[in-house]
């Protein structure tokens, strides 16, 4: 039987490549891709970074979005932009975009641009700090508007106990302990526990909790992860309960945690899944409206951490909490 069918060339992949290369063939857009390596920025923030009008920045982002180089992320009434979370790497377009990202990431950021990014992160951090300074006395009430402590603390504690070595953890860090409610869980499981918070008001509440519970192996440090990195500290377990949605650059928490983790160490994170309840910003001091599980996985992978167990907890008020487990299996950087 003679096969009379003819292979018709598919021009779609070529069209997609042309769109990608055209969109990326601009120095400014390459710089935008570079600053979006780990961060998520709004249009106004990007305009501030690159000293241009919002209309001009919106045009560039529209072109890049059409090519698949960025994707929008709604945060309340604002639109932020990030690199696409789920690149289809088995397509020519996906492979091309990933290669462009890999190449542009080899170009170091100009110092003036990094300084502007630090200013934006500082503005976000100040916003969070001011909230906790004003509402330190009502911390538990504010947090439980979204998720009762026990609902995420119990599965996180159970996971930590299951993973604990027979001789207990040697050194443990809790990032953002809040009023210290989780410190009594961690203290009996380790020799040395560090509570790190950038709010002196919240740190004072955490210290009072430890005094009330007679915990004597806890050190309280006011600062951020950079504070511990400068000291050269190393930990076997790091915990961050409902912290990421309060920090200026959530991806950096994974990078810093990886740098602070000893080989074979574990990172436990409980965090909100992405939601659209805008009131959480003003009532609870949230900078971000939760995160897709894929976001946390991507940030962890970029930091050299391996994702393992995932626990999802649905709440009656429409929120969902994810409890995640990440491990470091390479030599400490």
Descriptors for this entry?
single chain; 333 residues; alpha/beta; Arc Repressor Mutant, subunit A; 2 domains; three-stranded antiparallel β-sheet; 14 helices; 46% helix; disordered N terminus
Counting structural domains, the number is 2
Determine the structural class based on helices, strands and strand pairing.
Answer: alpha/beta
What is the helix content?
Answer: 40-55%
Determine the N-to-C terminus distance.
64 Å
Shape type: globular
Poorly predicted runs: 1-11
What is the H/E order? HHEHHEEHHHHEHEHEHEHEHHEE
Major sheet characteristics: 7 strands, mixed
The fold-level CATH name of the largest domain is: Rossmann fold
Average pLDDT works out at 87
Q: Any idea what the CATH superfamily of the largest domain is called?
A: Vaccinia Virus protein VP39
CATH class of the largest domain: Alpha Beta
Strand order of the largest sheet: 6-5-4-7-8-10-9
> How many helix segments?
14
How many distinct beta strands? 10
Radius of gyration (Å): 22 Å
Measured by DSSP, the beta-strand proportion falls in 15-25%
Tell me the CATH architecture of the largest domain. 3-Layer(aba) Sandwich
Domain HTH arsR-type: 9-104
Pfam family, one: Methyltransf_23
Protein name: ArsR family transcriptional regulator
GO molecular function: DNA-binding transcription factor activity; transferase activity
């Amino acid at each position: 039987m003679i096969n009379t069918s003819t292979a018709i060339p598919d021009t779609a992949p070529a069209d997609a490549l042309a769109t990608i290369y055209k969109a990326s063939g601009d120095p400014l857009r390459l710089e935008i891709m570079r600053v979006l390596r780990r961060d998520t920025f709004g249009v106004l923030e990007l305009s501030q970074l690159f000293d241009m009008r919002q209309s001009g920045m919106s045009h560039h982002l529209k072109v890049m979005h059409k090519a698949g180089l960025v994707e929008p992320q709604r945060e309340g009434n604002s639109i932020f932009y990030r690199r696409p979370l789920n690149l289809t790497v088995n397509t020519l377009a996906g492979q091309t975009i990933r290669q462009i990202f890999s190449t542009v990431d080899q170009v170091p950021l100009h110092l003036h641009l990094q300084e502007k990014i630090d200013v934006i992160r500082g503005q976000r951090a100040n916003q969070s700090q001011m909230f906790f300074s004003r509402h330190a006395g009502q911390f538990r009430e504010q947090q439980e508007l979204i998720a009762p402590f026990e609902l995420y603390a119990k599965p996180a504690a159970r996971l930590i106990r299951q993973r604990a070595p027979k001789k207990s953890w040697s050194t443990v860090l809790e990032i953002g302990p809040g009023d210290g409610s989780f410190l009594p869980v961690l203290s009996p499981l380790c020799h040395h526990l560090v509570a790190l918070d950038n709010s002196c008001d919240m740190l004072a509440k955490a210290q009072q909790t430890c005094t009330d519970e007679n915990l004597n192996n806890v050190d309280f440090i006011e600062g951020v992860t950079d504070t511990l990195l400068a000291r050269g500290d190393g930990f076997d377990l790091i915990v961050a309960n409902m912290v990421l949605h309060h920090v200026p650059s959530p991806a950096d928490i994974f990078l810093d945690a990886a740098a602070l983790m000893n080989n074979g160490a574990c990172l436990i994170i409980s965090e909100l899944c992405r939601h659209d309840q805008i009131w959480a910003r003003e009532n609870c001091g949230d900078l971000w409206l939760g995160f897709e599980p894929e976001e946390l996985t991507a940030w962890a992978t970029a930091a050299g951490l391996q994702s393992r167990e995932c626990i999802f907890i649905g709440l009656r008020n429409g929120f969902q909490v994810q409890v995640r487990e990440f491990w470091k299996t390479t030599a400490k950087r």
